[in-house]
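Exercise 7. Given the components listed, write out the predicted structure of the assembled complex. Treat all entries as one system.
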Amino acid sequence: GENVEQHPSTLSVQEGDSAVIKCTYSDSASNYFPWYKQELGKGPQLIIDIRSNVGEKKDQRIAVTLNKTAKHFSLHITETQPEDSAVYFCAARSGGFKTIFGAGTRLFVKA
Amino acid sequence: GAVVSQHPSRVICKSGTSVKIECRSLDFQATTMFWYRQFPKQSLMLMATSNEGSKATYEQGVEKDKFLINHASLTLSTLTVTSAHPEDSSFYICSAPRGGYNEQFFGPGTRLTVL
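Answer.
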């Protein structure tokens, strides 16, 4: 079945630096790749997504890239702020609604 | 604002009792909803797909008799943890797809603690 791997599991950056989280997926039929931010004790919130017909998407300080050939997709956060500290999950979906999540990356932004 | 709500947000119960968790889509209809379980510092694991008007579809390894799902209306799905035990203690999260591309929106989660 579909498998999504996410790295790193923990990431610590200085405020203002960039953070990059990488994911790979196994199912070549996957066509939708959302990223979620989860704060402690809360449900995940969609922060950005990308579809398989697009290679890159940007929303202010957040960008996502997709390499379909390599089955890689990445989240880039620029000019990080302490409030960006949270757990980030990548996910992949291939048709239907079933979404497979990565293991998560715990991001710490040090002031 | 929130598009999916859950109730209760937190529940503590004794071992052997049953607990019902509600998931509601706000201002939109959801024929399908999803139930996830998340253990501390772990990812979300899909438990089951809730289908309005029909039986839920359970993931492998999830006991359907223990985790009863009822999708009684287009805006409400309920998860009942029957005869709860301490190992059922977890964070339970529901989600519902909305929009033309069916982005999933997650509820705020329910923290279940079984004593």
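Discussion: Chain B touches chain A at residues 4, 6, 32, 34, 41-44, 46, 49, 93, 95, 97, 101-109, 111 (CB under 8 Å). The mean pLDDT of chain B is 92.
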